[in-house]
């Protein structure tokens, strides 16, 4: 019997196979790092008097606690300032490469690495961050780990793990205009639920996936964790190789040819069997928007806020009831009738250059609705910011009445000054709509950059087709 892509990458990194139900020992090719989940790991190494096993295989950036304006001034938040200075001190002491705030390669951990060509097919990549699944878009086995595991990887370059189960997610057909990778993943999570992927590596396959750019594939893999999965992967193909070629860390010359030859073997065999399989038809998809407080509580934009009684499952019913109370929504309200205060375009889900281009395309020649309080456009990495500025997108955003910011996690989560105030309603291109996620009492509707941009023009949740 053949094997799946995930199983191939796993097998190629097996240091020692676990006996009698014990976990396997897996080699880790790359560890990415940020300020939030690294301090205790460094402290652990320090206390044990250890060094990194492979200093060159851990690379850090600053993203969660960084402000996105006045970055040359002292951080206004003391805790954030301490987090950042601690990372800087730790990286210096242990010799870890760091892209700090102000560096041209600084950015959200899941955005800066692919841009540098650090993320490559067939690698095992870890980070103390759940959205590490993003890197699976390249056919890497990439997943979030806890702080003690971060320390373990630093010390040994390995991890002790039980193999993941495999799930195929087939996306057949083609996306209609106005629908995007974000709608695919929101629809998947709405279908399988926030626990549907638990224990699995998801492999996204099918015609719609093959046609997606790398930026779009990253959007999909990014949110695998929101379905509860350990990781998400897409088999590498010409689109992948084309993206990597010529990037600073991409192999060159003969090594490039060897790499591509290996990467081409990284696909699920025709006779391989997945532990589970789900199919979705891209051509039937509409733009998706969440109405609740978990990423699975999403619906097509033309739907109405559901009645909690419509859920047959008691837990789902209570969850819907609580979500509606928190979100300040009445059942039966058309999603398109919901007025928002704030628009956030950014994050490791949708802050890449193609997302900004798509948003700018819609905003060009328009101005934000008067009822919209603020529109934040935040590039996922400093390279994306530079690229956008070279293309004049920053001017389009500014003319529109949006704020053009420096790179970072920004309003994706309330760990930096970009926060919602209680009751503020936001349409956001990020990946989590949990209570308080974007600031205490803030209300989040997840959507694509196209929907966010159209909403900024009309003031109520809208798709480009409504313009
Ligand atoms: C802070 C970090 C550990 C966290 C994560 O693991 O994902 C954050 O990035 C998030 O998106 O909630
Ligand atoms: S942008 Fe959001 S989801 Fe991504 S790493 Fe930052 S906080 Fe986490």
From TrEMBL:
PROSITE patterns: ACONITASE_1 (PS00450), ACONITASE_2 (PS01244). Binds 1 [4Fe-4S] cluster per subunit. SUPFAM superfamilies: Aconitase iron-sulfur domain. GO terms for biological process: L-leucine biosynthetic process. Its EC number is 4.2.1.33. Residues 7-459 form the Aconitase/3-isopropylmalate dehydratase large subunit alpha/beta/alpha domain. It is an enzyme of class 4 (lyase). Gene3D superfamilies: Aconitase, domain 3 (3.30.499.10). CDD domains: IPMI. InterPro entries: 3-IsopropMal_deHydase_lsu, Acnase/IPM_dHydase_lsu_aba_1/3, Acoase/IPM_deHydtase_lsu_aba, Aconitase_4Fe-4S_BS, Aconitase_4Fe-4S_dom, IPM_dehydratase_rel_enz, IPMI_cat. It comes from the Bacteria. Its cofactor is [4Fe-4S] cluster. Pathway: Amino-acid biosynthesis; L-leucine biosynthesis; L-leucine from 3-methyl-2-oxobutanoate: step 2/4. It catalyses: (2R,3S)-3-isopropylmalate = (2S)-2-isopropylmalate. Keywords: 4Fe-4S, Amino-acid biosynthesis, Branched-chain amino acid biosynthesis, Iron, Iron-sulfur, Leucine biosynthesis, Lyase, Metal-binding. [4Fe-4S] cluster binds at residues 348, 409, 412. GO terms for molecular function: 3-isopropylmalate dehydratase activity; 4 iron, 4 sulfur cluster binding; metal ion binding. Heterodimer of LeuC and LeuD. Catalyzes the isomerization between 2-isopropylmalate and 3-isopropylmalate, via the formation of 2-isopropylmaleate. NCBIfam families: leuC (TIGR00170), PRK05478.1 (NF004016), PRK12466.1 (NF009116). Belongs to the aconitase/IPM isomerase family. LeuC type 1 subfamily. This is 3-isopropylmalate dehydratase large subunit.
